[in-house]
Amino acid sequence: DGGGGGGASSQPQGKAARGSRNQPTMRCGLIVYSTTVLIVTLTILSFYLPAMIYHVRSTNHRMTRSTTYSTTLHGHYSLPAALGGLPAGGAMPAPRGPSGARVMMVTANQPLPCTTRRGDWIMELALRNKLMYATLHDYKTWWSTELVSAWDLEAAWNKIPLLYVLMHPESPVTQGVEWLLWMDDDAIFTDMNFTMPLEQYDRDGINLVIWGDPQRVYRANDIQGLNTGVFLLRKCEWSRQLMAEVAALATPSIRRQIGNKGRIAEQGALTWVLHSQAERWKDRVQLERNFTLNGNWMDYAKKWVPGKPKLALPVWGNDAIPFVVQYAGCQMCRGHSENGSWHDGGVRKCQNAFIEAYTFGDDQVLSLLGLRHLTMDTHLVRASAGSELYQRHQRMTRCLPSFLVIGTQKGGTSSFHFLLKSGWHDAVRVNSGEKEIHYFSWDDQFRQGPLTYQQRFDGSGDRLGECAEETKLRGEVSATYLDYPKAAERAAMLLPSARIVVLLREPVARLVSSFNMKWQVEICGKLTWSRTDCYNGVTSMRVINENNVAPKQRAAAVKVWNECSVDKKGLDHDCLRRDFVDKLSAAISDEERRLGECAKPGAFEELGSCLGVQGLEQAKLYALMEGALFLYRSMYSEHLAKWLKVYPAEQLLVIPSERLKEAGDMKDTMGRFARFMGLSDSGAEVHNDLIFKSSPAAKGVGSDGHVHENGRTYIAEAPADLAEKIHKILCPKNQELAQLLLDKKLIAEVGDMPWLATALKRDIC
Question: Which among 161, 231, 247 has a CA at the least distance from the CA of 196?
Fold first, then answer.
């Protein structure tokens, strides 16, 4: 029984035990459920309650149309009660100077360094533009890098609390100021003489002037209906209240209520306020469309004409210079986005357009000092014609060259120089001594100064500007000028009025010729300059030792001698051909690899910088340019673009090198050169008979007319597959060159340069 009783009593006791264990679990479940419901409810209220309150408050404002406000901006910005005795519109009178209404220009940029190349420099120029405009018109300025309320009014919102604080009636920095002119960091003035019609705004009782479309703002609530990049705001209580209303929309929940998926910026907020409270604000707002406050940079790119009051082409039917151009979307400080992808190409596009517009505006400022920029895309300046500085520069440089023949290397510069030095034209003189001075390309020459440069020409005196034969046009020929990194800017600073002659040879032929020269120097040493087939003159180690030009060259010559000599009496041509082709192929492959690295995203903006040509001392630069950069030196668009940055296209003459081979073609080419220089192309002072005499660098073949064809022999040419590879590498640059020459009107059509037309027809790009 005891066992049975024990068994019978054990069942209810077990149920009781299980029930006691389940009761806490149920209670916990109810607590979790209730807590979840509460959290969800509070979350929903946190999003929608502020919006409901905002709408109720806005409705009350529209019903009462009260002119007295007292609002709190999220506990940070409290507006004082309306001051008694304010004039209509709430404007507070400010002391006026003798010139009328006082203006403070306000701008801001980010407190941290830019993340894009040249971004900080671009922002510095944009700031300078604003400061120069303010200086010209006697405006006060306020430049901010502070985030006034970073936790809720970040980025573009920051202008709202900043302006609110500056408009405080007791602010010491705006005493005497009546208007605040806001300018985004990416907006610049391009009409530096224009001023906004402040007196008209006074008469009309206007407090806010901003570009806008009334239909899109007041009816459609279109965020693109106005532009908050630039606007004029009267310093008054009305304006402070408006800024308070805009700042109130910074709460994320309210942003979601009024549109743009919660990402609404201050422009959308102002649009919403003007749309939803039109009766309250509209009468004091001027949506200005009588002049350009919001010029879009893409509309104006490439349309500026230096020193002209009109655009080259009209924008929206108007060729007037815009007051302001904005670079919205460029993000030149932080990066550029096209189709949602950030990339350096977009940054460069924006920055180049910016430099154009900035230079146009800056020239208006520099003109007050008698200065102007050399071209629209350079920081270099020169004296304006007629100014004292210009006259001084003209006096001191009148004995320096009037023209430069800048290359290309292996492009016919020796033949061109030979004709000029031989006296082809009585009105032209070139330097005495060696053909090439390299004054602008080699540091050691440039350091000697312009007087030493002047004295390279016969008849020069001991002071700058002193010379005999003042009626002669002086010029010089240096093939390093086209592509050495410092030459263009140095020439433009000293000789801004000089005419520039560019000889361009088919780039693959130029490359092989350049490499052949390097290879011959390596094999022959000094013999390279005494015989065109110098490798046939290398007949012993004694010849190598007598003609070596450097230890490295001698070591290379000895190595070839050991590999290719025949019975120690000469060099085997088949062995030399293999050596030539192997070394050419290796050089191209190595440079192609380096160019590939430079083409990667995030590489240097300028190809030459990526390849390492910037900042090198002379010996290292020479070794790099002459011994390793054969492809780069055949990329003519890279180099010509640098010269076109500092010289207008009207001062450049481009000649195909192939027009210098035959005497008949060369006669036409030299006539073209004479006309370019403003000289007669025929008559007693022109000696065309010299054209039919071969130059020292030419073959000297008279029977077929090729009197100026390169006389240096080749042991080998580039194999067909290697030549095709080089063509493919250079093809994109040839396309760039064709577009550049056509855009700058340096050629009328691609057919003017036959090798370029042929290169572009090849189906390899």
Answer: 231
CB atoms within 10 A of CB 265: 16
SS (H, E, C) 143-165: EECCCCCCCCCCHHHHHHHHHHH
573 touches 566 (CB < 8 A): no
Helix (H) or strand (E) holding 53: helix 2-64
**Mind listing the pLDDT tens digit for each residue in 348-404?**
788 889 999 999 999 999 999 999 998 888 888 888 888 899 999 999 999 999 999
Element (H, E) at 311: strand 310-315
Q: Cα separation of 601 and 598, whole Å?
A: 8
Question: Which comes out higher in pLDDT, residue 306 or 189?
Answer: 189
Task: Specify the pairing of strand 77-78 against strand 72-73.
Answer: antiparallel
Cα separation, 159 vs 270, in Å, equals 12
Cα angle 609-615-619, degrees, rounded to a multiple of 5: 115
Q: What is the pLDDT of residues 417-443, one digit of tens each?
A: 999 999 999 999 999 888 999 999 999
Separation CA 188–CA 91 (nearest Å)? 28
Give the chain's mean pLDDT: 83
Per-residue b or e along 394-411, where b marks 16 or more CB atoms closer than 10 Å to that residue's CB: eebbebbbbbbbbbbbbb
- Alpha-carbon gap, residue 271 to 145, rounded angstroms: 26
Please choose, from the candidates 727, 507, 509, 518, the residue with its C-alpha nearest in 3D space to the C-alpha of residue 636. 507
Give me the count of residues in the chain.
765
Helix segments in 495-550, DSSP class H = 507-524, 541-547
Residue 673 in 3-state DSSP? helix
pTM of the model as a whole:
0.73
Distance between CA atoms of 505 and 494, rounded to whole angstroms?
Answer: 28
**C-alpha R_g of the chain:** 38
Read out DSSP for 99-151? Answer: TBS-EEEEEE--SSPPSSTTHHHHHHHHHHHHHHHHHHTT-EEEEE---TTTT
Contact partners, residue 732, CB within 8 Å, separation at least 6: 765
Measured distance CA(365)–CA(372) in Å, rounded: 9
Question: d(Cα 266, Cα 163) in Å, to the nearest integer?
Answer: 13
**HEC assignment per residue over 408-471:** CCCCCHHHHHHHHHCCCECCEEECCCCCCCCCCCCHHHHCCHHHHHHCCCCCECCCCCCECCCC
Helix (H), strand (E) at residue 502: strand 499-504
> Any residues with CB less than 8 A from the CB of 351 and at least 6 apart, and which?
118, 122, 330, 332
Geometric angle at alpha carbon 337, from 214 and 600, rounded to 5° = 165
